[in-house]
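Re: the request from the purification team.
They wanted to know what the chain is likely to look like in 3D before they choose a buffer screen. I agreed to run a prediction and write the result into the notebook, where they can find it.
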Amino acid sequence: MKRKVEILDRVIKALASFTISYAFVVITYVLISDMGIFDPIDNQMALQLMCICLVIAAIHFVLGFFEIKSVLCFCLLYFGVVVAVVFFMGIVVYDFLVMRFAFIVCLTGMLVVVFAGTCLITYFEDWKKVQEINKLIQQNKNL
C-alpha cells in the first residue's frame, strides 16, 4: 500500500511539473516570438511544445526513482535532460530549431527560466515540508 501511495505521489508531481513547465514554455515562447526571434505560436507548435514537455516530465519521472543525493548533480542531470530532449525533438523530430545566434541565446534563456521556475514551484512544497521537519527536530533537540 505504501508503495502505491509513493508511486501515485510521484505521478502527481510529474503531472504538476508537466503542467507548470508547459505554462512557462508557452508564456516565454510568446514573449520571445513578440520580439520576432521565434515564429508566432500556432496550434501545431503548441502541441509540439506540449509533447516536448511531456517527454521531459516522463524522463524526470523515471529519474525520480534513482536516489541523487547531491543537489548540484540533481540540477545538472535534470537540466541536461531538458536540453537534450529539446534539442533532439526540436531538430530531429519536429525540425523547428533554427541555428542562429539570437535564436540559440533566447532558447537557452528560455530553458533556464522554464527549468528554474518549474523547479521552484514544483519543489517549493517539498522544501516547506523539509523546513517544518527540521524545525521539529530542532525543537526536540532543545527539549
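For the purification team: The mean pLDDT is 89.
Please add any questions underneath this entry.
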